[in-house]
Write a structure and sequence with these properties.
The structure holds two protein chains of two kinds.
Chain A: H1 8-18, H2 22-44, H3 49-57, H4 61-67, H5 78-111, H6 114-119, H7 127-154, H8 161-188, H9 192-216, H10 218-223, H11 225-230, H12 241-263, H13 287-315, H14 317-326, H15 328-333, H16 341-374, H17 378-382, H18 388-421, H19 428-436, H20 439-455, H21 462-476, H22 484-488, H23 505-528
Helix pairs in contact in A: 1-7, 2-5, 2-7, 4-9, 5-7, 5-8, 5-9, 7-8, 8-9, 8-12, 9-13, 13-16, 13-18, 16-18, 16-20, 16-21, 18-19, 18-20, 18-23, 20-21, 20-23
Chain B: E1 2-13, E2 16-27, E3 31-35, H1 42-49, E4 57-62, E5 65-66, H2 71-75, E6 78-81, H3 93-103, H4 109-118, H5 132-145, E7 150-154, H6 162-177, E8 181-186, H7 189-195, E9 198-203, E10 206-212, H8 213-218, E11 221-228, E12 241-246, E13 250-256, H9 260-268, E14 272-278, H10 282-293
Parallel strand pairs in B: 3-8, 3-9, 6-7, 7-8
Antiparallel strand pairs in B: 1-2, 1-4, 4-5, 9-10, 11-13, 11-14, 12-13
Helix pairs in contact in B: 3-5, 4-5
Classes of the chains: A mainly alpha, B alpha/beta.
The complex binds adenosine-5'-diphosphate and magnesium ion.
Magnesium ion binds next to α1 of chain B.
Chain lengths: 533, 294
């Protein structure tokens, strides 16, 4: 074992050196964000009977599916509100941070041949994996501590020091668990892209399992790491066992990953690379065929994900109905959203979630053009009889179609699962059409990405920040009562709440025109600029 | 007839001047060598010729068409092998070759299979598992399977083993025999020497020498070893003599190209018994230039 870990500490220092900006930036943003939100709560939710009514609305299944179970409803103090509204979301962000960092220092470095150089030095076989885990464990610990202290110092009603340490602890444990699971996936796959797909797929699955579980089955939620950690009931009960269990699971996963790491060859997956066809199929005959071939796993994978997402939400339709019937308060206090329309709300919420998720694979496809250029592979096309418009057009066309497919598949999944549990859940045709109204807005994101790739390729990754902002503005718009202009700045800022409200064709047309303009500018830029490889 | 013409091309990347006004001309049916050390600007020149980069000033033409504006038209008739071949890791070599061949619209199945065999490539393996040499073979097979008029090859053999280098040289000679033109960049001198009719030497973005190998040699020294019946007086004082070694029966030295006639004339007074002269290798030519420029 000693031998395996030789020189772990210098490697850990190297990782810290390479990430000396990135890690502090993550920590600082997370800290400021959580503390700022908590500090805003006293004004957003003044004490009094009104707060109790709000508490009741938080037992709405649509909100539970997004935020997690509401604990401490009977005494809904600021601590309970903080844990309910913020903890799950922050946990997901921390998980994303860990996935990105873990992949970067394991599979991606290996893929780029950097680990090979390191391994030729007197360095243990496990040293790089161990150094990565060491750095991430410290990062998560520091994050947990900072957030705990930050929240504790605020000293708000219901936010005592114990609860604050549980809040920070929940973040740290979640982070560590997803770092460990990513390290594990990084051993299985041969490319960082696949490892990334597995890791994010696992995160998405954890979220869905918890969403369904929180509405219909406690056991399901316990199977999800996110659901498990939420069971700590931070600021309300402060149970330690969920955090302890998750920590144990993270340690076991790490050991398993280490074991796999010592068993496999450098730069190989766990399974030997398969041989493939010695000839290209008929479809691989032009740039479009190439894009489809390169992106088919991404597209199919996401489509399955969207189907599962829709189906997960559909599967709890019966519970939502039960909820409406059993919640007298709901029917008294909020008659306008009571009754059948709560199902409508539920559908509308999913419809507003779909475009954000549909945007991800669409952006992955169009930004692949940039990745191909960086890898020096566009010159294979451009040095042959292929125009630049054909090259970018193939990526664009695939991205646009991807967005449509994702929307439709999500709605179909919802409908199929909902039909299985209740009769006549909602009109399929109308809902499909309503969901398509979001498509031009997703295309705006694709257009922005195309514009970046065409004119400022180095800025292309900024589109992800915009999507992140969009997600933030939508998710927290009403919870944090953000100003209306913040939601307006998202691509679907002018969309009504479909399918409950009707869309004006002018809105759709205007969005469409904007998307087309962006894409055209991108194409023109791409045709004119230098290509670096 | 010139198939490729570069006219006073300059390329700047921000403050870096990669090319400072270079000129090139490749004629139909010619194998043209483009030599220079790493970072000299070979790849940049080739990318400008392919219309992937736009020249800051000057013009580059292939088949009389503008390299930037008419890129696609030109590319229908050229084949290109990049210096650093990056392929899609999850596609097999065979798939990539077929894809490249199809992009040109042609379909030479037999040629493809024959080349795969000659280059000893396993087309069923994923490109992600190929070594640098194997990736280069994929690009070479795709290029030579194409029926092009001009082959642009950027350091095509830097990853190949000597056996495969021979196959490569055969391929170049075959296309040359068919009257095709080849533009071959390299820092491997022996390769250029064996294959090329004319060369240009580039260094730090400037062409420092151009011409046929013969012409370039003319500018350089010839190594001479001579034995004479009568004892030689010291040659030290003769103009153009370098690295002189004197023996009882003769001498060995290098002589500047333009002084060779004078020196031989002088030596003939002493009854030459044996005379060996060797043209300078390209290596010497290359070193000579770099020494001169330093
Ligand atoms: N995209 C770029 N940005 C800045 N400098 C570059 C870029 N591409 C090439 N260069 C510079 O141009 C010079 C020539 O490079 P290159 O053509 O690749 O050389 P060669 O192929 O002869 O080894 C080098 O000094 C290199 O650093
Ligand atoms: Mg080069």
């Amino acid at each position: 074992m000693r031998q395996l870990l030789v020189n772990t500490f210098p490697l850990a220092r190297l990782i810290l050196r390479r990430d000396r900006v990135q890690i502090p930036l993550w920590l600082l943003s997370l800290l400021l964000f959580t503390v700022a939100v908590a500090a805003a709560f006293p004004e957003l939710y003044p004490a009094g009977p009104e707060r109790q009514i709000i508490a009741q609305t938080f037992t709405n299944p649509a909100l539970i599916s997004m935020l997690g179970p509401a604990y401490g409803i009977h005494n809904y103090h600021l601590g309970a509100i903080m844990a309910h509204q913020m903890l799950l979301f922050t946990m997901v962000v921390v998980a994303i941070m860990n996935i990105l960092l873990a992949i970067k220092h394991t599979r991606r470095d290996e893929e780029r041949g950097r680990i090979e150089v390191i391994r030729s030095l007197p360095v243990g076989r496990l040293a790089n994996a161990a150094a990565t885990m060491l750095v991430l464990a410290c990062t998560n610990a520091v994050l947990g501590l900072l957030v705990s202290i930050g929240l504790g110092l605020l000293g708000l009603e219901g936010m005592d020091w114990t609860g604050s340490f549980f809040f920070g602890g929940a973040l740290a444990v979640t982070g560590l668990f997803f770092a460990a699971s990513t390290l594990f996936f990084a051993q299985l796959t041969e490319t960082s892209r696949t490892a990334m797909a597995y890791s994010f797929g696992f995160l998405g699955l954890s979220f869905l399992l918890r969403a369904v579980g929180d509405i219909s089955s406690e056991t399901l939620s316990l199977l999800s790491p996110l659901g498990l950690v939420l069971r700590a009931q931070v600021y309300v009960e402060n149970h330690f066992w969920p955090l302890g269990t998750a920590l144990l699971a993270a340690s076991l996963l790490t050991l398993l990953a280490f074991r796999l790491n010592t068993r496999r060859d450098l730069e190989a997956g766990l399974f030997p690379a398969k041989q493939g066809p010695s000839r290209a199929s008929r479809f691989l005959g032009g740039p479009l065929g190439l894009v489809l071939r390169l992106e088919r796993t991404t597209i199919i994978g996401w489509a399955v994900g969207m189907l599962v997402l829709g189906a997960s939400y559909g599967s709890v339709f019966a519970d939502v109905e039960d909820f409406v019937q059993s919640s007298e308060l709901y029917q008294q206090v909020l008659p306008d959203i009571a009754g059948a329309s709560i199902l409508g709300q539920f559908v509308a919420m999913l419809l507003s979630l779909l475009p954000m998720l549909a945007a991800v694979p669409a952006l992955l496809v169009i930004l692949k053009l940039r990745a191909e250029e960086k890898a020096g592979r566009t010159e294979h096309l451009l040095a042959r009889a292929v125009t630049r418009v054909q090259v970018m057009g193939s990526f664009l066309g695939t991205a646009l179609a991807t967005a449509v497919v994702m929307q439709l598949v999500g709605v179909l999944g919802l409908w199929a699962a909902a039909s299985a549990v209740v009769a006549d859940p909602f009109p399929l045709g109308h809902t499909l059409l309503s969901s398509l109204a979001y498509v031009p807005a997703v295309w705006i994101l694709v257009g922005l990405a195309a514009l970046c790739v065409g004119t400022a390729p180095k800025a292309a990754a900024l589109v992800w920040f915009y999507l992140g902002y969009t997600f933030f503005a939508d998710y927290f718009g009403s919870l944090l009562q953000l100003p209306a202009w913040m939601a307006r700045l998202t691509p679907w800022g002018h969309m009504p709440n479909v399918p409950l409200e009707a869309v004006s064709p002018w809105t759709v047309l205007a969005t469409l025109v904007l998307a087309v303009v962006l894409m055209t500018l991108g194409l023109v830029g791409y045709s004119k600029r230098d290509i670096y490889g | 007839m010139a198939v490729l013409r570069v006219n006073n091309v300059t390329k700047r990347f921000g403050h870096v001047t990669a090319l400072a006004g270079i000129n090139l001309e490749v004629n139909q049916g010619e194998v043209y060598g483009f030599i220079g050390p790493n970072g000299a600007g070979k790849t940049t020149t080739i990318r400008i010729l392919l219309g992937i980069l736009q020249a800051t000033s000057g013009s580059a033409q292939i088949f009389g068409l503008d390299a930037w504006r008419d890129a696609v038209e030109i590319h229908k008739r050229i084949a290109y092998v990049p210096g650093d071949v990056s392929l899609w890791p999850n596609l097999t070599g065979g798939e990539v070759i077929d894809f490249f061949v199809k992009l040109r619209g042609a379909n030479h199945k037999s040629r493809r299979d024959e080349l795969i065999e000659r280059f000893d490539l396993d087309p069923t393996k994923k490109c992600g598992t190929y070594s640098k040499g194997n990736r280069q073979k994929v690009a070479l097979v795709a290029a030579f399977a194409a029926d092009a008029d001009l082959y642009i090859l950027d350091e095509p053999t830097s990853g190949l083993d000597p056996l495969m280098e021979l196959v490569f040289q055969e391929c170049v000679q075959e296309v040359k025999a068919q009257g095709k033109s080849v533009f071959l960049s390299s820092h491997i001198l022996s390769e250029v020497e064996k294959l090329c009719d004319r060369v240009s030497i580039i260094r730090q973005g400037q062409i420092i020498e151009s011409g046929s190998l013969k012409e370039l040699r003319h500018l350089t020294r010839t190594r001479v070893r001579v034995e004479t019946a009568q004892p030689l007086p010291s040659l030290k004082e003769l103009p153009g003599i370098h690295d002189l070694e004197e023996f009882p029966s003769g001498a060995a030295f290098q002589v500047d190209g333009d002084k060779l006639g004078d020196v031989i004339g002088y030596l003939s007074q002493f009854q030459i018994l044996a005379l060996e002269s060797a043209p300078p290798t390209l290596e010497e030519l290359f070193m000579h230039h770099y020494k001169g420029a330093e």
